[in-house]
Amino acid sequence: MMITYWLNGKKSSADIEPGMMLYDFLRSQGCYSVKCGCETTNCGLCTVWVNDVPVLSCAVLAVRIDGCQVTTLEGLQEDAKEFAYYMGLQGADQCGFCNPGFVMNVLAMVRRFDSPTEDDIKEFLSGNLCRCTGYMSHMRAIKEYFKAKGKEVRS
Amino acid sequence: MMEFKSINKVVAKKDSQALVTGQPVYTEDIMPKDCLIVKVLRSPHARAIVKKVNKSAAEKIPGIVCIVTADDVPKSRFTIAGQTYPEPSPYDRLILDKQIRFVGDAVALVAGTNQAAVDKALRAIRVEYEVQEPLLDFTKALDNDIVVHPEDDWKPLVDVGGDNKRNLVAKACDRHGDIDAVLASSDVVIDRTYHTRQNQQAAMETFRAYAYKDAFGRLTIVSSTQVPFHVRRVVSHALEISKSKVRVIKPRIGGGFGSKQTVVMEVYPAFIAWLTGKPAYMVYSREESLTVSTPRHESQIRVVLGASKDGHIRGILLDSLWNAGAYGEHTPTTVTLSGHKSIPLYNAAEAFQFSYTCVYTNTIAAGAYRGYGATQGLFALETAVNELAEALHMSPVELRFKNMVRQNQVLPAYFNETALSCTLDKCLERVVSMSGWDDASPRKVLPNGHIQSVGLAIAMQGSSVSNVDVASVTIKVNDDGFYTLHIGATDMGTGCDTILAQIAAECLMCSVDDIVTDGVDTDTSPYDSGSYASSTTYLTGNAVVKTCESLIRRMKELAAVKLGLSDTDLDDLEFDGKAITCLQNGKSITVRDLGNGAMFMNGIALEATESSYSPTSPPPYMAGAATIDVDPETGHIALLKYDAVIDCGTVINPSLARVQAEGGIVQAIGMALTENVQYTPTGRLQNNSFMQYRLPTRLDVGPVNVEFEPSYEPNGPFGAKSIGELVIDSPSPAIAHAVYNATGVWVRDLPITAEKLYQAMKHKNL
Questions:
Q1: d(CA B537, CA B495)
Q2: What is the pLDDT of residues B164-176, one digit of tens each?
Q3: Residue B3: pLDDT band by 50, 70, 90 thresholds?
Q4: Is B286 in contact with A131 (Cβ distance < 8 A)?
Q5: Nearest CB to B20: which of A80, A125, A136?
Q6: In CA terms, which of B64, B91, B98, B521 is 20 to 30 Å from B503?
Q7: Domain check: are B504 and B584 in the same one?
Q8: Of B670, B691, B668, B687, which is closest to residue B678 (Cα–Cα)?
């Protein structure tokens, strides 16, 4: 089945199997930032944006991106580098395997909120599991990042 | 406190930019694109004999390259536990065995060119089983008529008291003083039994590895592992090939927590690559990872405490029954920590007895998980001490102050080691004030009817396996004087590459950026037992210090030659990080010129390698306090906050140490409250996905507040001890204590689910 889509801003077409999931398709296109941590849509590791909305790529058929803009972390490198600075200082990156999906949601969040509360942030990121950090360092990094973006996190 | 330049400082992990920006650095990201896909056909029965495997239809499926059964694999038994040779874990596995021992045990391997073909073949294979009654209850396993390992070639390399015909993996007893007399003469004796279940490590990156033959006909395995050198040995044993034929590479790995201290699946793709000559890749699904990897051992621990009326804990009896599951990985060793890393906390005891029995059952084979047995032992002992405080009508804080280990004490329950560094008393003092613990009222009823309460516990662990673990380090001086730090220890996300570079930078008086690190390759990295047993900062850190000393001496030798001072005593040359200067005549050569000079007309190799082992395993300590909210109408427990104060000796990197603590505490909160492992009556795991096996999310935990109360460990690098495992030990007993303070119910069986607490409260008619 032929689809046409924009991947990280670049227009492409592909002939794909109707049953293929977006996760598998994106990795086949070299987007190795996209990770899988479960098969039950629980972990958030495979989060990408379709038309700027975060989705779980393991639960979206690849044919659904026909005519859509798809963004992975490969397409957000400058933003990711900036956020990485704050993650690094907190040691919040740890094993890093959950980072790309988590960062996709953080970058979506910083675009959506100007002055979220900590609870807003936890709610927004509740679908992103992390087994290493215990989440506290994520919050510290996000607060610093929001501050650098001229935004604030209310307690 | 000493002033440091590179340690005791926040330094971002060297790989943090790559990890946060999603670079392709993990096993699956870097594998060759033409790998065969390998999968396992698994038994639906907990105990059975494979009578016949009909693979003819499956073999005809286009894309299928080979299907392997028990008839096709080598016949010598091995262990997949990643431990120093000779491993204490019994050699009780084959790559594929006709005797099935748990639901999910491997029946056949299928390799094909694409996933769809392999999946189709798995469905097309017909297996004839002789189904047998399984042995699922570990309390009935010893000398049961059902024998999990009936084979005659079951082989222990070390005598740990096992006997496979009795379902016995290990058994021993350790005593000090006359426990019977002490208990008989104690004013108050409590006798309690506790139960903890299997827990899943649940690293976000599931198990995966690929293998290929290189240009020299050797087998290379790239694996997400904590123990590359042990993988080399295990694969060589399993495949019956020479160790010289095997090379193991560890790239970045997506978490381990002990799970990747077991060689859970590397032998499968290794065998297929060896057999076919084609590169082979295998990745476990989350369901497979939860069903057939090696979780924490289920335990039943009896604790008897004898005390005088005024609160002197005089005698401690701890008896652990350990469920090995279907195979014995890490069983004989994890169990020892349940006593050896709990009883020494109460060093004022006149007598103790620690005994254990480890048994096989037809459940998932358990293995290594952060805490490694100490976690179960400390849940039992710390809860018993809290119960004793209640029986004595004494504050649990006061009881601990009266009995706890203090610095410079000799520890009879810890191999007579001396506690050279210990600030546990200060940790407890601080956690009491952080948590707002109040002896008079550790609970309050809120206007909505909920009850808020606090509970306390203390904990210890070790730093490396004493007199066993070996850590080696090589440091090289390169062009312009930058250094390469080669280690065999594996950074699994904890940041040890960075921490060890910080230690090297401190010794070499340079910037952390001047030290380059990499992953591990058994062909080129110096030997290390691996990253486990809380060994890396302590033991590999010591090896770094030692190597730097040798390297500086080496650099001075070359400096003497380059400066034309060959007759000069090396002690007259001073190294200041930037240059080496002769104290006699002021002649000097920079490290930069030395590095470049080493590559020109030079006969002195500018590198050094040193190894360390440790005759002691200095314990780090912590005190923790859980504040919870209980809804008495439903039994629901909300973790409002967790306060912890930790003595890990000198803190090498405050950010990374803090995250270790926060992460370990949140894992333990999951263990205490939501992470449940349940089997059906036929032995099938019910909690086989993240839908049923509930890891804490960021909505499930209140703030975790971590503070440090550093001691100085004279045997550690710059006074450091370990932290990675310790932090998982205090939450479950502290939470159980808080639950008691809220409800008057001791829940002695983890996890403390809402249902369990509700039933317990109802039973007590509260």
A1: 10
A2: 999 999 999 999 9
A3: confident
A4: no
A5: A80
A6: B521
A7: yes
A8: B687
Which class is A76-148 in CATH? Answer: mainly alpha
Query: Reduced to 3 states, what is the DSSP secondary structure of residue B326?
Result: coil
CB-nearest partner of B255 from A90, A95, A134:
A95
pLDDT digits (tens, 9 = 90+) for A70-97: 999 999 999 999 999 999 999 999 999 9
Residue of A nearest to B370 (CA): A132
* pLDDT at position B682 over 70: yes
| Per-residue pLDDT tens over the stretch B371-400 | 999 999 999 999 999 999 999 999 999 999
pLDDT tier, B66 (very low <50, low <70, confident <90, very high otherwise): very high
Nearest CA in chain A to B206: A37
Q: What value of ipTM does the predicted structure carry?
A: 0.98
Q: What is the DSSP letter of B528?
A: B
Residue B1 pLDDT level (bands cut at 50, 70, 90): low
Same domain, B578 and B723: no
Pairwise CA distance, residues B462 & B412, whole Å: 15
Interchain CB distance below 8 Å, B494 and A85: no
Tokens of A71: 């963004």
Helix extents (H) in B393-472: 396-403, 424-435
Window 11-30 of A, Cβ < 8 Å to B: none
The tens digit of pLDDT for each residue in B546-565 reads 999 999 999 999 999 999 99
CA of A130: which chain B residue's CA is closest? B204
Q: Is B704 on the interface with A (CB under 8 A)?
A: yes
Residue B5 located in a structural domain: no
How far is A66 from chain B, CA to nearest CA, in Å? 24
Query: Using a CB-CB distance cutoff of 8 angstroms, which residues of chain A are in contact with residue B24?
Result: 32-33
| β pairing state of A47-50 and A53-56 | antiparallel
- CA of A134: which chain B residue's CA is closest? B663
In order, the DSSP letters of B573-585 are EEE-SSEEEETTT
The domain in which residue B176 lies consists of 135-198+297-408
Looking at the predicted structure, is the pLDDT value of residue B766 above 60?
A: no
CA distance B465 to B467: 6
Interface check for B206 against chain A (CB to CB < 8 A): the answer is yes
What is the number of structural domains in chain B? 4
CA distance A89 to chain B (A): 5
Using one digit for the tens of pLDDT, what is the confidence trace for A96-114? 999 999 999 999 999 999 9
Note whether B22 contacts A33, CB cutoff 8 Å. Answer: yes
CA distances from B557 to B20, B32, B526, B604 (A): 43, 45, 23, 8
